[in-house]
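Comment thread on ticket #2218

A.B. wrote:
> Attaching the input chain for the structure job we discussed in standup.
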Amino acid sequence: MIQAAHVVLSSREPERLRAFFRDVLGFPSVDAGGGWLIFALPPAELAVHPEDGAARHQLYLMCDDLAETMKELTAKGVEFTQPVKELRWGRLAAFRLPDGEELYLYEAKHASPLAGVGGSQR
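C.D. wrote:
> Ran it. Output below, let me know if you need it in another format.
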């Protein structure tokens, strides 16, 4: 039976991204050999959305308090690239990764299967 998910981010600057996830976001990791870090992620949920164009896959990090999380990350030098968007399903922000790419961060307004599992209590 499936017991976890493995997310892969591709980057032209993998060492910088690894340092960011380790040092700024504080994700625990193991060295799989030669400095190849594999990070533990917070509990996750998966949604399937309709798409008229080409299929795509996205990674969003979730938090319980977007304003507080943004404050903490900004103090660590993280650059937020878009103003917070108030959406039907949550509050959304984006921040710049060390390789120049963006990653989304959001506070959900929707019910979550993670309630009571260490994730959002929504």
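A.B. wrote:
> Thanks. Noting for the ticket: The first helix runs from residue 14 to 24.
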